[in-house]
Specification:
Length: 211
């Protein structure tokens, strides 16, 4: 696929993420949606969602690709792999666990679609087709685990202080620590498996442009 087509793909992904995140953030500031509390509380809780953070990481990782589809860099590599992991987990967990529990309407349905149904497959399919490859090493995999583990630690600490958890499968108040930790452990294992698979595919799929 040509660099021009790649730039269009990454540009569309970036636009979807920006519009979805900013629109949903605006709705949260306006007090529309599920988030409760004062403005400051809603801001903190909004940016605490794995979905929001994974979409932002995806945006940061693809912006350089809009300029140069074969972009590379020492710190960009783990950012790219972290974003790919996060957005893939976002799509999988939402489709399997969270979608049956939610029924967004109106503008919320559009932003929900952008965050959960458009960005994840576009990011993953774009990576499979466009790369750039190879970019993933085992040290890159190790660095890519930092964010999901940090998010889990932050979520449990924040929940212990505030009593609020972004997702029902992590709600210690409802489930207890044993079940919540089991669920977070599953997410961590899933993350490691997906990262290892990404590294394998990164080495097996055709090289794209500059290696």
């Amino acid at each position: 696929m040509s660099n021009r087509a790649a730039r269009v793909c990454w540009g569309v992904l970036a636009a979807v993420v920006v519009l979805s995140v900013l629109t949903e953030f605006g709705r949260s500031l306006a007090g529309v949606g599920d988030l409760e509390g004062g403005t400051g509380t809603r801001v903190v809780r909004f940016w605490s969602y794995f979905t929001i953070q994974s979409n932002v990481l995806t945006l940061l990782s693809v912006l350089p690709l809009v300029r140069d589809p074969q972009h590379d860099g020492r710190w960009w590599r783990p950012l790219r792999l972290t974003a790919l992991l996060g957005i893939t987990v976002t799509g999988l967990v939402y489709a399997v666990v969270l979608a049956p529990l939610q029924d967004p309407t109106g503008l919320g349905a559009l932003t929900n679609a952008g965050l959960h149904y458009v960005a994840p497959p576009l990011a993953l399919v774009g990576w499979l087709l466009l790369g750039p490859r190879p970019r993933a090493t085992w040290p890159t995999v190790g660095w890519a685990m930092v964010w999901p583990l940090a998010w889990i630690a932050y979520t449990l600490a924040h929940g212990a202080v505030s009593g609020w958890y972004p997702y029902p499968f992590l709600d210690v108040g409802e489930l207890g620590y044993a079940v919540a930790l089991r669920n977070t452990g599953f997410v961590a294992v899933l993350a490691l498996v997906l990262l290892s698979l990404c590294r394998l595919l990164d080495r097996r799929l055709p090289v794209t442009g500059r290696g």
